[in-house]
Write a structure and sequence with these properties.
Largest sheet: 3 strands, antiparallel
Shape: elongated
Low-confidence stretches: none
Distance between the termini: 49 Å
Helix content: 55-70%
Strand order of the largest sheet: 1-3-2
Number of helices: 9
Order of helices and strands: HHHEHHHHHHEE
Oligomer: single chain
Length: 147
């Protein structure tokens, strides 16, 4: 079979594109100003995340679930009905209190929504506390630097 140059390029692109997380790699490459290989490397090493809105919501929920102990006594008090002084007195136990604090929260979904509303998802997902947004093919993606 004889192939023309256009068919060869299409086949090459199909083979090459399989090496990347598309469209995340393209989005990150554009955001960082690097080539696709460098962007894919950042994704593979989990130094950067490129997520849809739903994926970011799911991840931030998990992150918050693991760090309830780190919230301020006033925030915890507002979501548990327990006096702030109790959380102040228990503060030195840090992570050891996490499960107990989670059980005291009246509505965990509201707790997460309130935390994100106050600080944004970037506060919990990005080392620089940022959330970068890029729309690609009509879908909005969010970029977080993890490392």
């Amino acid at each position: 079979m004889i192939y023309n140059e256009e068919e060869i390029m299409k086949e090459h692109w199909r083979e090459t594109i399989q090496d990347y997380d598309v469209p995340q790699t393209i989005i990150l490459a554009k955001h960082l100003g690097v080539d696709l290989d460098d962007a894919q490397s950042e994704i593979d090493s989990e130094d950067y995340l490129v997520l849809t809105d739903e994926e970011a919501d799911e991840l931030v929920r998990g992150e918050i679930k693991e760090m309830v102990w780190a919230f301020t006594p006033s925030f915890l008090s507002a979501h548990t009905g327990v006096d702030e002084e109790i959380f102040v007195a228990l503060a030195d136990r840090c992570e050891d209190n996490n499960d107990s604090y989670k059980r005291m929260i009246k509505d965990f979904d509201h707790f997460v929504d309130d935390a994100v509303s106050c600080d944004g998802r970037g506060h919990f997902l990005d080392v620089n506390l940022e959330e970068n947004e890029i729309t690609f093919n009509g879908i909005t993606y969010y970029i977080y630097r993890r490392n």
